[in-house]
Amino acid sequence: MTPFAPWQNFYVIVGSSAGALIGLQFVVLSLIASRVAGAGDPAAGRVFATPTIVHFATVLGLSGLLSAPWNGIRTASVIWGLTGAAGIVYAILVTRRLRSQTAYKPEFEDWLCHAHLPFIAYALLAGSALAARSHTYEALFCTAGASLLLLFIGIHNAWDAVTYHVFTRAKDHAGKQHIRTPSNE
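-> structure tokens emitted (185 positions)
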């Protein structure tokens, strides 16, 4: 029996959830795009929307990877380690973009969920890969924890984006339509 066998149900559930949420994110963004007019800062999409899809796709990819019939842990741990390392670089890039975008002034929760927690999740993923050969049991729990963390970060960030557009942007847009100016009286 491979070390991954006891994790099959976990990754079926987590991977299916990530896949469904990717599809749902596309639907929601399409609906928001048709509802709220006005050009925003393109950099904001690279900070607030794209990383959510990347986190969900990472979870989906990890689920597929760790559900494959591996004979041992070596190759799988190298792949998930490279995924973690790439995620660390991506988290740093998103943090830089968060700092430089002008569409929205980030608050503590934004820094936590868009910068710090993703960095931690990807670092946990990379670190668990390094420990996988000597501490397989613990490494698999850390990988599962990183997967769940990325899934919950994605859920939080998707909800945050939707509520921002529904309650803030839509209200701002509606308020601009009702402003009377001397030229339209």
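Residues 42-169 form one domain.
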